Amino acid sequence: MIHPTTRVLVADLREHVGHTVSICGWVNTLRLQRRMQFVLVRDHTGTAQVTHKRDESELESQLEGLTGESAVRIVGRVVDNPIVKLGGLEIIPESIEIVNRAETPLPIDEHTGLEQRLDWRFLDVRRRPTAQLLFAVQTTLEQGMREYAYGQGCTEMHTPKLMGTASESGAEVFKLGYFDRSAYLAQSPQFFKQMAIAAGIDKVFEIGPVFRAEPSFTSRHATEFTGVDVELAWITDVEDVMVFEEQMLTHAITKVANVHGEAIQEHFGIEVLVPQTPFPRITMAEAQEILHAKGWDPEGGKEDLDPEGERRIAAHIQEQTGHEFVFVTHYPTSMRPFYHMRPADRPDLTLSFDLLWKGLEVTTGAQREHRYDMLLKQAAEDGINTEPLQDYLNSFRFGCPPHGGLGMGLGRMLMVMLGLDSIREATFLFRGPNRLTP
Predict the structure, then answer these.
(1) CA-CA distance, 44 to 25, in Å (whole number)?
(2) pLDDT tens-digit profile of 163-214?
(3) What is the pLDDT of residues 62-95, one digit of tens each?
(4) Of 64, 69, 89, 73, which Cα lies nearest the Cα of 23?
(5) How many domains is the chain built from?
(6) Hey, how many other C-beta atoms are within 10 angstroms of the C-beta on 429?
(7) What Cα–Cα distance (Å) separates residue 416 from each residue in 163, 353, 419?
(8) Would you tell me which of 56, 102, 227, 389 could form a disulfide with 69, CB atoms 3.0–4.6 Å apart?
(9) Are 283 and 325 in contact (CB under 8 A)?
């Protein structure tokens, strides 16, 4: 028999019917009637009913003084009661410890809008099983990606988030004081990943923070997010990178479907579909041709796919193939950084790709240019001053192998997977142009 001071999770109470246990959690609901007191106590695994018949005891007074969301530890006997909707069980309390009494009223409820809920994110996550599930799914998704990467012989790296130069363009970076000079928050681990390749580490990946000083107020942008980055040496071409990604995602999504599929269906109304490989591929030129034929007219005549273009091309591919994913490849050089490799016969294009999932861009990747003279040439063509990039460029002067990689937004993956309206809900503590708290 378990010792009554040992905590038992709500999900495991069925194993302890007839025994005295201790449960710890938060007061979810109070129903204090004339003859009976009912308290629903919630932990991260579920909710249990505590049932007490009024008897003018100290226990009655303690239960009467509870408030919603108070943290409590209750010792009591687990009994079968088919009438109870919560698993047909109830707890007859013997003692209660009010660990931390919650103030009243609470600052949010079930009708509170998203922005105010983000102000009180700890309460928001604690009170909503869907939010709790999101972070369980995130953990499993990351675990699946790591499993695949480890299985392919990848080395997990931890690259600096402080940079002495403002990346290749100086745009979209946060500047901060660093002793007697300036530093910048890394907007990508890209250059450091490539240095690892030049260091002889064949395959590298990193899951870590990325910072973008974009004044974007869309549902899919954040100023700080978690990036999943991969770099692979000795590739034949960019196709090797796309194959790695589609296999990694299929492995990770399969794991999510197996572990959380039923819960996601219940709480989010979404069926997690494991994608078939290979994913469809379409060149940027082909995508534009299809979209223009369907009347797509991007604002300002931009070459790049706008969000509407991404949604439309993804819908077209799904209609043609039944697939939720599509790689859009061979972006023009005008849309890509100077270090993306360009085909010898088409110097106006890059060996690059974006991956769309249900119409949202979740990944950008490419084969990198590994030849020092070509990097200098392409940087000059793009009008880039290479002097601040010398540490990066030195990586290619002494025998760097052909390589390529990708960068993926974890929040966007969760947003699409769970059918969320905003990346704000796919992040524990969101950071955007107007939000630096809590």
Answers:
(1) 8
(2) 998 765 556 899 999 999 999 999 999 999 999 999 999 999 999 999 999 8
(3) 999 999 999 999 999 999 999 999 889 999 999 9
(4) 73
(5) 2
(6) 14
(7) 31, 19, 5
(8) 102
(9) no
The 162-163 sheet, strands edge to edge? 162-163, 181-185, 175-178
Both tokens of 110, joined, read: 């079930």
Give the integer Cα–Cα distance in Å for 2 and 15: 10
Same domain as 145, residue 62? no
Is the Cα torsion angle 278, 280, 284, 286 positive or negative in sign? positive
* Residue type for position 392: Y
| Cβ–Cβ < 8 Å for 331, 284 | yes
In angstroms, the Cα distances linking 234 to 247, 385, 405, 419 are: 18, 28, 11, 37
Give a yes or no: residue 2 inside a domain. Answer: no
CA–CA distance, 82 with 205 (Å, rounded to integer): 51
Helix (H, G, I), strand (E, B) or coil at 316: helix
**How crowded is the C-beta side of 29, counted as CA atoms within 13 Å?**
10
We report the CATH number of the domain holding residue 90 as 2.40.50.140
Task: Give the CATH number for residue 204.
Answer: 3.30.930.10
Question: Are 136 and 59 contained in the same domain?
Answer: no
- 96 and 126 in a single domain? The answer is no
